């Protein structure tokens, strides 16, 4: 006698007996139907084939919309249409030759056929600064400096830059020697701080000059930079100061028609005297 059990199917000799548990079968069928609803088929039928540009991952659908479905449920219809077109695009991508790179399947896309427009022009490379241009001409290559250096005086590793560098420098320079040609009463710590601030200001000025040179803006070597456009107040101030700069302090200068004198420029006007404000005097004080 041979007994073999396959699921719910029993074999006993030449007699085959079927025992089905309908509840279990229905449960399995419902579960498989729900799983099938989650995963839609990868085959999509279209009246007209899509136009593909796999280089830019672009697919163009020239089929007409279903007006009835579009009017009934617009969002669901557009979502389903987008899903189908995306599926067709992915099917075309999987038709391309593939290769494996570090356990990853990679597809090499063909060259693009569609020229996509840009909202802004292609960014231009930044112009070189004065030092970068000099280093390029001389063949100077930038070397990566180490972060720490051994200090024989402190007998420890000191950072070359950063906030800990300043604290290490203070610990090292707790005493400064006065040079022979220097004033013995001059504070060397203050002098060192002033020299450091001058270097910072010089670097900032050089940075601004590099920006002006990159933008092709002409700036004077000394003095205050002039504005491109002068306002009416600036012109009035310039005319008033120019007239007052004569030998007669502008007393014999003729006025132009509808000319107005600038106000509030007494500190920069030659020979201008400020009016002295008198203190208010009450009637009782005046009688006394």
TrEMBL record:
Listed InterPro entries: Ribosom_reg
Location relative to the cell: Nucleus
Record-linked Pfam families: RRS1
Chief localisation class: nucleus
GO cellular component, one term: nucleolus
Keyword list, A-Z: Nucleus, Ribosome biogenesis
Gene Ontology BP term (one): ribosomal large subunit biogenesis
Region ranges (Disordered): 252-288
Task of the protein: Involved in ribosomal large subunit assembly.
Family stated for the protein in its record: Belongs to the RRS1 family.
Protein name, entry field: Ribosome biogenesis regulatory protein
